[in-house]
Amino acid sequence: MTKAFRLLVALTPALVLSAGCNAAGDDMVQPAQDGWEMVWSDEFDTDTIDRSKWDFDINCWGGGNNERQCYTDSLRNAAIVDGVLVITALKEESKGPALPLHMRAEADDPDATATKPYSSARMVTRGKASWKYGKFEVRAKLPQGQGTWPAIWMLPEGDAYGGWAKSGEIDILEAVNLGVECAAEKGCEEGGENTILGTLHFGGAWPDNDFASTEISYPAVLDREFHTYGVIWGEGIFVWTVDGKPFATKRAEDWFTTKSDDPNAPFDKPFHLILNLAIGGGLPEERALGGVDESGFPKTMEVDWVRVWQCGEDRDKGTACILGRDE
Which is the catalytic residue, given 67, 137, 157, 169? Predict the structure, then answer.
């Protein structure tokens, strides 16, 4: 999920990925299929969310993007139902801390509260599990509607290079306004908005932050079925996938941090996973029909499983399972 002060991706035509066909550009890499060892997973096959694996961010900050929800740890916003994690955004007045926990210590009023018109959940593995390099996949069913903003992403476990975006951000999957029908000049595809995005954030602190992003048109996302969203990350390389097919590649020359001359920085430190469903905010509200459609709530993001692998013979760099030993 893009954080505070994101520079919005230009509304250029999305690349199209269809069955058996990779999107053009981005110096596409076809990662190896073997050599991976699973090191962490959650199949959501228990009655309740495993708190040894997940924590909850609880605040009404709005992500720095003017999002309209409060995040809670209520069972009404996140629960396991028939072996599936269901994150639910409700249209209801919700009140909570005005700031995230890490920002409260330096705030003028650390106990300040805020009220928002929606509630939802943001689940994190921070403090419980983080990884440097690996293959990360999430099988999920995404919500539709103007103003919806589901995200599968990663933040650094420690801000080794400084605050956002100096220490980086990895967006495995973002989608906004899925299914919305609007004019082509507004960026919608025929049959309904079906763009998915994979993005890195890096550089300096705002306004010196930067990003590298690829967005593709993926009509299958509108079939209201589960799809698998992933990123494969090794030293100096990222490959984004959807349903096992690569659609974007970024290399070390595509990113930087103002706090280090190392070409791999800031993506050379452990990152943790985040699952959330936001309502409103800069990215969805400036696209398609604009704003938030208040009808059709509740909205749900369903997650069948989350799995993490690392390269068995090359955990230090991970590239042997991406590029092969000869590269």
Answer: 169
Burial group, residue 176, by CB count within 10 angstroms (0-12, 13-18, 19+)? buried
Tokens of 293: 């459609």
Dihedral sign of CA atoms 215, 216, 217, 219 in order: negative
CA 70 from centre of chain:
18
pTM listed for this prediction = 0.93
Output the tens digit of pLDDT for each of the chain's 327 residues. 644 433 333 333 456 654 333 443 457 787 767 899 999 999 999 999 999 999 999 999 999 999 999 999 999 999 999 999 999 999 999 999 999 999 999 999 999 999 999 999 999 999 999 999 999 999 999 999 999 999 999 999 999 999 999 999 999 999 999 999 998 888 888 899 999 999 999 999 989 999 999 999 999 999 999 999 999 999 999 999 999 999 999 999 999 999 999 999 999 999 999 999 999 999 999 999 999 999 999 999 999 999 999 999 899 999 999 987 544
Count of H helices and E strands in the chain?
2, 18
Please report the domains of the chain, with CATH numbers, ordered by start residue.
28-42+122-321 (2.60.120.200)
How far out from the chain centre does Cα 169 lie?
9
106 an active-site residue? no
Active site residue 174: yes
Active-site residue, from 174, 189, 215, 285: 174
